[in-house]
Request: fold
Amino acid sequence: MTDAMLDQQAAVLRSRIGRAASYAERERNVADLATIESELQTRENATRRAAQQEHGGVKLCKRVADLPGKDIHGAEHWWLQTARKEAGMGPTTGNVPGHGESLPETWATQLVDHSREPKTNCEPVDKVVDEDCVDRELQLGATTGNWTPGLNDCHSVVKRIIDKCHDEAVTKALEADTARRLRDADAGAP
Reply:
């Protein structure tokens, strides 16, 4: 049964619940509606998982930044990795930060290549993201503003890219799902 048909059945059941002649009839309708809604949720979750697998090549990489006091604060340097790119915030000199320097080389930052970084921890991001979008955002040399810990740092840059590309992935998935539902509803008629 198509999602459109299930949606239609759910609408009918919702209208019947308020007009049920008996308590037993109402309870049957409520139970049937719960079953249909559960099936629709299962299908929606499967669609989300499929979208995540399709665009699930994005990883968030982290390592302890080798900075003075690292044993006390344990600050981590973050960057993103896709099948085609690996980049994160760094100074405009092009170096990757957090390798023993006591102060930043410069406060001005840009996206720098991180492909030679030791990967102590790279995990898939916890949101559905569009990998192509992440690749577009990871333009080496793109200005990321002045480094301001807690306000504009490697963490905030990574989060901004993930949030932007999550929104694009969700939009694409919803558009594809809507198109599929419309095709199902009209049985493929042009």
